[in-house]
Amino acid sequence: MWWKPPRFLLLLLFPLVSPLLFSSDSYSDACDPRSLPDPLTLRPDRLTVLINGYSEARLPLLHSLAASYAVQPLVAAVLVLWGNTSTPAAALASLASDGGVGSAPISVIRQSSASLNARFLPRAGIRTRAVAVCDDDVEVDARTLAFAFSVWDSRGGASLVGLFARSHDLDLEQRRWIYAMHPDRYSIVLTKFMILGTDYLRRYSCWGRLSEAQQLVDRERNCEDILMNFVAAKESGAGPVLVGGRVRDWGDPRNNGGGVGDGGGRVVGIERVGLSARSGHRKKRGDCITEFHRMLGEMPLKYSYGKVVEGVGEQGLCEKGGKLVLCDHQD
Question: pLDDT-derived band of residue 2, with 50, 70 and 90 as boundaries?
Fold first, then answer.
């Protein structure tokens, strides 16, 4: 059991965190409870947004997204986790913000390596019971964020909640797991946007049995989201929850215009720098599922079905004005 320092010591150890441009992660301190806020002091009514960034080509978009999340009422803080160690300090200077009236502070944390495991490190700057982990090319509006958070809270914080779902499946001939998309079921939500409890950050980073799996994530530079789904499914005994809402995915390769960046509306080439654009991406993720199963000696992933949506209006169709519309549609 982790030792909990007395409250008076916590006040000395954890003063109010202000935005720091070049604060850094510390793997040695991440699992030391003395370096983290007392879980009993974490806010239950707000969340912290963790944006993973690496590509300098996405910095203008990242600046816009961080500012957009910072003004949402639900957000207590935005932490930009920057993994490109060669980026000049000047290129990141404009990202950090002290916040202000109606805006949460934005901090930039320069990671000590490009490890994707670092996006799940416990951090002293996280003062909320929930975090929203997202990529630097995804924008979720305030209403969708609030709805996803309410779904997470209604499940007691045990389930992962996301907006992008995938599935594991079994190749019977090869006797290996594969990474798939099914129209009727899912078992994985992606870190493109995922809400989870802060306690899962500690489980992911500090559970010794995951060290071999974390090494695989580092070797492949992939699959950290799959491993977090393993952790959550093992702890909760349940699958993730997919919610519906409005989300702008700038990095989807199906984008063909309508963004910002080239004068005509596009973010030039932004869809080509993501991990999912690499050759063999899907096979590699299937291999990760197979290896995680072998390393942990069990397959905890559970299937979920359906999507949680905000509205519960009637589904019946009626003819109005010569058109078929939902019966509760008001003219």
Answer: very low
- The helix (run of H) or strand (run of E) holding residue 168 is strand 165-171
**Identified catalytic residue from 25, 135, 136, 225:** 225
Report how many domains make up the chain.
1
In this structure, of 31-35, 102-106, 173-177, 287-291, the range with the lowest mean pLDDT score is: 31-35
Q: Is 249 a catalytic residue?
A: no
The enclosing domain of 250 has a CATH number of 3.90.550.10
Contacts of 234 (CB under 8 A, 6+ apart): 296, 298, 300
1 lies in some domain? no
pLDDT at 279 over 70: no
| pLDDT at 273 > cutoff 60 | no
Distances (CA, A) of 100 to 62, 76, 226: 19, 12, 36
**Domain membership of residue 162 as a residue range:** 7-326
- Report if residue 181 sits inside a domain: yes
